[in-house]
Specification:
The protein is α/β, with parallel strands linked by helices. The protein is built from 11 helices and 8 strands.
Length: 268
């Protein structure tokens, strides 16, 4: 019995050593796509896009942020923007990901900016997909609160905890641009409430952000906060492209067109 047990541990350790070899050591340099979903979604929302991006030399990661998707059971009132930033940072660190193309959809523009501020050396490029693009000290609520040109279309700001700390999805799946009723129902069943702190916590960024990391912006809709973000990105020298006519969730409604555009932006 003792001999069998020692053999089992020896085999297990050998397998563990093989599994922990860096990807680059096994297959040469690898580009890593890390796709971060927006508010109320989960890693599941990239399932149509992933096969379009995955290829030899390319690996695609689709983390789910705390309290959402398959991690909805972890939702708490104290889950905030920094929790979600650390979710993605932990993935990059634990998997030792480098040469990362970090894509943030919608709310996740806030998240990827926080990741880039903490780990710029691991990133090759930031791509904002119809996303918020924060300046230092800004919260998502700052971009949607009624003010100036945004006043007419902005939704009410999410309430602050502890009152009504769960923010339900503000839109139906069809309003995200998913017209097929069967697919819209499938997506709708997977949208989950999100902690209000994620919308109201300011994002501190160090001086010099984005610390030499290339940025690009893809605008999909006419929502005023995304129009403003795309215009600001262009003024700051980022590459800006449009993927119109497919709604906000282009990764679901136009995966082939989005994959092609993402690949072009990485090569630009």
């Amino acid at each position: 019995m003792h001999s069998s047990r020692r053999q089992w541990w020896t085999q297990g350790l050998a397998l563990g050593a093989t599994a922990t070899l860096p990807v680059g050591a096994q297959a040469g340099k690898v580009r890593h796509w890390v796709l971060v979903h927006g508010a109320w979604h989960g890693g599941w929302c990239w399932r149509k896009l992933v096969p379009k991006l995955a290829s030899p030399g390319e690996r695609v990661w689709t983390p789910t942020l705390t309290g959402l998707g398959d991690r909805a059971h972890l939702l708490r009132a104290d889950v905030d923007l920094q929790t979600h930033v650390l979710d993605v940072c932990a993935l990059l660190e634990m998997e030792d990901l480098r040469d990362v193309v970090l894509v943030g959809h919608s709310y996740a523009g806030m998240v990827i900016a926080g990741v880039a501020d903490r780990m710029p050396e691991r990133l090759a490029q930031l791509i904002y997909l119809d996303a918020f693009m924060p300046d230092a000290g800004k919260a998502l609520r700052d971009y949607t609160a009624p003010a100036g040109a945004l006043a007419a279309s902005a939704p009410p700001a999410p309430p602050a905890p502890p009152r009504d700390w769960r923010v339900p999805p503000r839109q139906t799946a069809r309003e995200f641009g998913i017209e097929d009723p069967v697919e819209a129902a499938w997506v709708q069943e997977r949208l989950r409430p999100q902690s209000a702190l994620t919308f109201v916590q300011p994002l501190p960024l160090r001086e010099g952000f984005p610390h030499g990391v290339r940025r690009a912006y893809i605008r999909c809709t006419d929502d005023p906060w995304f129009v403003e973000a795309a215009e600001r990105a262009a003024r700051q020298g980022a590459v800006v492209r449009e993927l119109r006519g497919h709604g906000h969730d282009a990764m679901w409604t136009a995966p082939a067109a989005l994959a092609q555009l993402l690949t072009e932006l990485v090569g630009a």
